[in-house]
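User: Show me an example of a complex going from sequences to structure tokens.

Assistant: Sure. Here are the input components:
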Amino acid sequence: MATVTKAAPAASDEKELLISGSEAVAEGLALADIDVVTGYPIRPYDTVIQAIAKKIANGQLVAEYIVAEGEHSQFEIVKHASTVGARVFCGSSGVGWAYAMECLVVTPPLRVPMVCLVGNRALDDPGAFGVEHNDALFVRDLGWMLCWIDTSQEAIDTTLIAYRVAEDRRVFLPLAISADGAFLTHSQALTLVPPKEKVDKFLPRYDRGDLLLHPDNPITVAPQANEDWVIEIRRQNDEAMKRAVTVIEEAYADFRKVFGRGPENPWFEEYMTDDADVILVGMGTISLPMKVGIRNLRAQGKKVGLVRLRWFRPFPTEKLVKVLSKAKAIGVVDRDYSFGSPFHSGVVANEIRAALYNAEKRPPLLAFICGLGGREVTLEDVYKATDLCYNAANSGKSEAKTLWLGVRE
Amino acid sequence: MADATTFTNDTQILEPFRGIKKVTIEEYFTSGHRTCQGCESALVMKLMVKASGPRTIVLGSTGCMYVANTTYYTTPWVVPWMHTQLGSSGSAALGTAAGLKALMKKGKMKSEPINVIAFCGDGGGADMGLNGISATLTHKDYNCLILLYDNESYANTDIQLSGMTPYGANTTFSPPGKTHRIIHKRWKKNMAGMMAAGHPECRYVATVCASYAVEMMNKVRRALTIGGPTFIHSLDPCPKGWDYDPMLSHELGELAIETGIFPLYEMEDGELRYYGKTKAIVDGRARKPVREYLLKQGRFAHFTEEDLAYFQEKIDEMWDKWEVPGVVPFKRTDAAKAAPSQK
């Protein structure tokens, strides 16, 4: 009855390892043969650097490995390494990502295909290690491609796909892979690791082409433009992000061809949405309590489904609208906040409201904020959200306010 | 593209120019910029790449030498050049060097020594970018030079004071007023001394002034030849920020040395060598009074005798009381007190 994404049977040439999300990213990085990697300590993303450092120490990866003195330098170092043709990786979490903000701003217009891991973490203050998505969402308007992963399998697969997409000459934009702090970065699961020969078939070498900074190609990069040219440069970024849509679809199709697994729909995972009255929407590991809750609700005869959004930039507007329009009510559960925004909703809820604005059929949409700072999202939260969505479905109206779930009030 | 050449971390061997007539004729920083008349920093750029030669990548952090040099659709740079953020000269140098090294080591790029130079102004280098430069100077496996062109203010943004602006100078952020004649009361940072003293594995730190062009170019060549991360501090008179007739740039550079305000030296593998007129001062030649230098500049026009005396006193201290004159500001201790057992 419903679409369930299933992993294809393990191809015999893949290793199966019990590894965390961060370790899975590191496996992907070794297979992608990255050239320069920079680290700076902050939890929880730092586990990926720990895993890479071990790989380098053990000779499983040859790369220049630099521990920077802050995130600003951490991101600048790889930015510059990328301009001379190196495949690069770095990452951060929470306020560390914020400390690198200036560098995050300049990377897309320089057309640097940097790949990063954001181990999503609540922003200070107060200090907190737990997951919130606001850190990665900082860059949502700047030309960064953003995706959220849910499992360690998706972590390694998305790492390979990320380089393929970012380094495609039609795109040349940075890409941040978001992984929920602790729930994914630190949680182990069985993960298929493909052989290098297959990866080489899927992932070509990074070729910076005529943008290469090298004495054989003496170009001047990023001269001062002012009002004469800035808007045209912005427009080029816009076109690159639009082209990324096709490139992402090609990459996933090719991934399935080469590795024999991976989702048909790159953009989001649908779980029991085919006949759903109520569709819940979320990003990242929130899918686990949601899927369990949905199974329980279905046992009671409630037709509930889940859309787990994988890609946030580029945003899969038409595809998402097509699926969500079928529902009688939509409940968007944000693991982030956007104080003072329309209806005081989270970021994802307002993006989806905007996406639906011109749709022929606009079901009532309820916005929820849940699980901030790593607070556990419980089955009760899922049931409550579903009940409220059913009320809206029955009345045909959405409450123009945002409901916080699982918060002491 | 991939040449499986054997990788070595060697640098280019750039022998010193033996006199002005032996300097190469080729220019790698040419027309196409719009710096001010009398701009010493533009001359520093020109000499810097003349010294390094064509197999060089230059990274420029935000500042005059970005904005005034590289206007979209025109560039004075014959060598590859890239902008980097205001506080990023250290990380730009490191990242570029690391990228080249990784690709050459892995056989993904033809192996050859390529000079990497990142420049920064005094604001970008001594203020915002200090931590990045400091970190880079500890990465001894990467060959790169950081050149600080010090015109003693944020000269690109309207002449605001930086951590390198001299005591008392009139800047748009430190205008002399009726109640407070002196707004800027901080003493200038000792950048080259700090870099040399604080980074034991940085093999080469030098100070230069473009008034002494051959010496300046040879220090750049030495830094690039020695390899590892190296640092050069250049004092650049700035007609706009210092408020003087553009024809005096060269003369003010000389006066900065002759008054002992800016010492010329190099530190190579821990060994200190003074240069030119600085060496003469160390050897006992009298320094010119600082007023000869200060009063030629509008930025000190509000100075009273008292201010001039204070400035002179601080410079005297640098030469008469510092353990390593002009370089390290540890005061000389009374020999008897410090080492009573010595003869």
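The lines above are the inputs; the final block is the predicted structure for all two components together. The two ends of chain B are 68 Å apart (CA to CA).
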